[in-house]
Every structure is written in structure tokens, then in C-alpha cells.
Amino acid sequence: MERFDLPPQGAEELRALLEYSGVDFRREGDRFRFFFASRGCRWQTVCQCRDDLVLVYGVHPARVTCPERALALCSELNGRVIRGSFFLQEERIVFRTSARLTERFDARERIASALEYNAAALSSHWEQLAAGAQGAGQFSLNPSAGQRPV
């Protein structure tokens, strides 16, 4: 019998959610790796659990060849997203979201929400991220230039 008065453990809640959802994942201690697909796009997602905190990193597969352009794009997109942030890590553009787990009864729902938001941000800016990683394409610092916040 589960005790609901105990604080949630992110790694166990994430493991249970991924197994329930049928996700093929690899676990390395408190780190989980799996692939996500949405809108014809496919990328690696890495989750790092720290007690009651689950950090979700969506890694765009395009290798960054123009860091200045990619950083400018990350900055511009960070002005549009409501939760999370884009940044560069190991020649990739990464989008990070998180879930703070305060109670066990809604822990999996919070993790699922962080995963869904992460996927939505990556997939809705997919082409822009690919072009920005290569230093190509145009983007506007004007938030009303046809893109809505995710």
C-alpha cells in the first residue's frame, strides 16, 4: 500500500509514468533517456531527477555550427516561451522544462505536463531551430511576427 504522506520521489514517479505510457527508455540511476516524436520530428529527451524535482531536456538533433546565430535564436525564443528555456550544450540546442513534485497524488501529472510542454516547444520551432543551428534562416525579434508563445 502506497503512503500518500511521503514526499514524491521524481525518479520513481517518472519510471512509473514512462512504463505506463509504454515508452522505451534507458535508466542510468536518476537519469532517463528516450526518444520523443511529434509532428514528424524525432529527438532525444533526457530527464534528470533530484528528489522532488524532475528536469526535462529536449535535445534538438541538428549540430550547431554557428554558435553566435544559435545563441541569438535561443535568446529570441526564450522571450516567447512561457515555461522553460533554450540554451546550447555540447553543440546542440536544448530546451529545458521542469516539474516540482509537491504531492504524490499529482506527481505524474506534473511530470507529464513538463514533458508535453517540452515536446510542444521543440516541435513548434523545429525548422527554426535546425536553421539557427546551421547559422541559416531568418528570425525576427518582433514577437508579433507570426509566431505565438508556446
Total number of strands: 6
CATH-derived architecture? 2-Layer Sandwich
The largest sheet is: 6 strands, antiparallel
- Rg, alpha carbons: 16 Å
**Into which percentage range does the β-strand content fall?**
25-35%
**Sequence of secondary-structure elements:** HEEEEHEEHH
- Contiguous helical run count: 4
Mean pLDDT: 89
CATH C-level class is Alpha Beta
- Uncertain runs are 141-149
Overall number of structural domains: 1
- What is the subunit arrangement here? single chain
Strand order across the largest sheet: 1-2-3-4-6-5
CATH topology: Yope Regulator, Chain: A
Describe the global form.
Answer: elongated
Helix proportion range: 25-40%
Distance from N terminus to C terminus (CA atoms, Å) equals 39 Å
* Class of secondary structure makeup: alpha+beta
Polypeptide structure, described:
The protein has 150 residues and is of the alpha+beta class. The chain has one domain (10-133): Yope Regulator, Chain: A, CATH 3.30.1460. 33% of the residues lie in helices and 29% in strands. It has 4 helices and 6 strands. The chain has helices at residues 10-21, 67-78, 107-124, 126-133; strands spanning 25-28, 31-38, 41-50, 53-59, 85-89, 92-100. A 6-stranded antiparallel β-sheet has the order 1-2-3-4-6-5. Strand 2 (31-38) and strand 3 (41-50) form a beta hairpin. The longest helix has 18 residues, at 107-124. The protein is elongated, with a radius of gyration of 16 Å. It starts with 9 loop residues before the first helix and ends in a 17-residue tail after the last helix.
